[in-house]
Amino acid sequence: MLPPPAPASLGFGESRRPINNQPQAVRINQFGQDNSFATDHPKDELRFGKGGVDDAEDAEVILHEYGHAIQDSQMTPFGFGGSVEAGSIGEGFADYFAVTVTNVIAPTLDPACVADWDSVSYTSTTPHCLRRVDTNLHYPEDLNGRVHHDGQIWSRALWDIRQALGNVVADTIILEAQFQFAPDTNMPDAAQATVDAAQSLYGAAEANVVLAAFQARGILP
Prior knowledge:
- By secondary structure, this protein is mainly alpha-helical.
- About 45% of the residues lie in helices and about 10% in strands.
- The chain has helices at about 60-75, 85-105, 145-165, 165-180, 185-200, 205-215, and strands at about 25-30, 35-40, 45-50, 115, 130.
- It is globular, with a radius of gyration of 17 Å.
């Protein structure tokens, strides 16, 4: 069986400014709970817990935490997540990053399901999912102040952009836009920055697709 083709480079660190262009410190099985997290202060590292299914056994958990490292690196020296909505954007992007990479490298039967292996230890329904990127939550009425819940509004918009434009164009737009986010941004401001990035990178047609995705979630008027 032939291996899958190598994923296309998005150009960051080559034709575009680099993202997290440094060795990434990782610690596994040193945290006893079923939880993982990324830190940028005092240490820039990813830590993976060993409760339930060891988190470092699920590639989407690893990718999720690396998604946080990506955003933190784009907002140096401040880091990202200085408000509840910014934290929600961070969780939504990290979920999106996990599934967009998986869908290119090792597609699953349910691509919108996040961390389906890790979640077998704490969910009873099938499919087993930590979260999903295709929920129908809507801004602002479905906000409840919990970043992992509210982040599903953001991840759905990103997922719809990917479904419409493909992973290379969508991921390039999404990553480029994050350079313009404030550390404490809200969803409408971040969404507008993403529309602007699409316009700058590709033109009006792609920008209109991105705008429509955020309008569908109620994030932009």
